[in-house]
Design a protein that fits this description.
This protein is of the alpha+beta class and 271 residues long. It has eight helices and nine strands. Residues 183-221 are annotated as: Disordered.
Length: 271
C-alpha cells in the first residue's frame, strides 16, 4: 500500500464534506448529542463551507490518499492569523502562529501510518507560511487524539471551551514549534523509538477512572493519561513527488509499525 498527501483544490469540496461528516461524530465525547453534532456539521462542515475554506487564502487544506481507494481518506486544515479566542491568546507562546483547525483520518485507515504522514506534511505546510508555532484544540476526554498529538511534538499549554451545536465542550490547547522536528520550545525531537507507550496497567486505571467518575474527575484522568503517554517516533522516508499539488509522498508504508492511536480524532474543529 502507498499513500500520499497533496494540497486540496476546489473540486475537493464535496469529498471533504463527506469525509468530515463521517469523522467528526466519531471524535466527539460521550456526552455530545447527535443533534449537536449534526448542527455543527450543517453549519461548519457542509460542502458550502468547505468551498469557502478552499477559497480563503488564509487557509491551507491538505488531503491524504490511500492509492487503493479513489476518495481522500484524511484531511487537515491550517488557519493563519492570531487566535480570536482570549483563552488561546493567553496560552500560546510562539508568534506568528497558525491553527491546526482540523485533523482527521477515516477509521478504516487508522494504524497504517497515514495520520503520521499527514501530520508531517501539515507541519511542513505550517512552516512554509512563516509561522513560528502551531496550536490546536483537543477535547479533554479525547485521550487517543492527545496521545497522537504528543507524539507529533505538541504539548498542553492551556484550556479553552468549544461550542458543538448548543453544548460547550472543554478542550486542551496544545502547541508546538513549526520548526522541522521541533516541540513547542523549538527543541528537536529525536528519531526512532524514544520510549514506550503507557503500560496496559496505567491505561486500565485511567480508562476505569474516566468511565466511572464525575466530569471534573474525567478531566483530571485525561490529564494524567496525557502525562503517562511517552513519546514514540515512527521513522518514515519521504521522497519528492512531481505530481501537481503533492507536498510529500512516501515510498511505502508497508514497513511502518502500526500505532494504536495513529489518527488524531479531535472534536475541537473550529471553523
Amino acid at each position: 500500500m502507498s499513500a500520499r498527501v497533496r494540497r486540496a483544490v476546489p473540486d475537493d469540496g464535496d469529498a471533504l464534506a463527506a469525509l468530515a461528516a463521517i469523522t467528526f461524530p466519531l471524535a466527539c465525547p460521550p456526552g455530545s448529542t447527535r443533534e449537536s453534532q449534526q448542527a455543527f456539521i450543517a453549519t461548519v462542515l457542509s460542502p458550502e463551507r468547505f468551498a469557502e475554506y478552499l477559497a480563503d487564502p488564509a487557509r491551507t487544506l491538505l488531503v491524504a490518499h490511500d492509492d487503493a481507494v479513489p476518495q481522500p481518506v484524511g484531511y487537515t486544515m491550517l488557519v493563519e492569523g492570531e487566535p480570536a479566542d482570549a483563552d488561546v491568546r493567553a496560552a500560546v507562546r510562539l508568534h506568528p502562529t497558525v491553527e491546526l483547525s482540523k485533523c482527521y483520518v477515516l477509521p478504516g485507515h487508522h494504524g497504517q501510518g497515514i495520520a503520521t504522514l499527514l501530520m508531517a506534511a501539515t507541519i511542513d505546510a505550517a512552516r512554509r507560511t512563516g509561522a513560528a508555532g502551531v496550536w490546536l484544540g483537543v477535547n479533554q476526554l479525547n485521550l487517543r487524539a492527545q496521545a497522537f498529538y504528543r507524539r507529533a511534538g505538541f504539548e498542553v499549554v492551556g484550556t479553552k471551551q468549544f461550542l458543538v451545536g448548543d453544548r460547550l465542550e472543554d478542550d486542551f490547547v496544545l502547541e508546538r514549534a513549526a520548526a522541522r522536528g521541533g516541540d513547542r520550545h523549538g527543541r528537536r525531537l529525536s528519531g526512532g523509538a524514544a520510549g514506550q507507550p503507557a503500560s496496559p496497567r496505567t491505561r486500565s486505571r485511567t480508562v476505569s477512572a474516566i468511565h466511572g467518575a464525575s466530569e471534573p474527575a474525567k478531566a483530571s484522568a485525561a490529564r494524567r493519561w496525557s502525562r503517562a503517554v511517552r513519546e514514540r517516533r515512527v521513522a518514515m522516508t519521504y521522497v519528492a513527488s512531481p505530481a501537481p499539488h503533492t507536498l510529500r509522498s512516501i515510498a511505502t508504508l508497508s514497513s511502518v509499525p502500526a500505532s494504536p492511536s495513529a489518527a488524531a480524532r479531535s472534536c475541537s474543529s473550529s471553523a
